[in-house]
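In this section we walk through a basic example: taking a raw amino acid sequence and producing a predicted 3D structure, encoded as discrete structure tokens. The instruction is simple. Fold the sequence below.
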Amino acid sequence: MTTIAERTPLPHVLLVEDTSGDATLMKLAFRRADMPTKVTVAVSAEIAVKILRREDDYADAAAPDIILLDLNLPRMHGREFLAEIKADPILRNIPVVVLSSSDAEMDVKTAYSDFANGFVVKPMSLDDYDDVVRVIEDYWFKHMETVGGG
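The resulting token sequence is shown next.
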């Protein structure tokens, strides 16, 4: 096993986020970060599943090193997406960090019981997004041993 930073010079993040403002701020924070990172945005869980399974227009999609998941998504809720990914033997090892506007204890407990690998309350400002990205880089990219994506 290796860290993401040891495995690749360009970590790949799949951001599952339907709010364009939140997606833009997260992408900007990754661009401003120390480590170059490729960020792919899926505006729905259904599109994210197609990217992960390399279906239809996403046949050439690269496997992400980590998934950042908004829970409140249209049609397929983030919890459904999480359950589907964690039930798939090919995809289950990709770390999934939930991004939620809620910090309610029940939401956090539910995410972890659904096998989320982390839970972060959505930032409110660009500086806060920068802080979240720094933590992701430090924890997930540089220190956590992983087994690779799908």
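Looking at the output, two observations stand out. The CA atoms of residues 98 and 119 lie 5 Å apart. The mean pLDDT is 92. In the next section we compare this with other chains.
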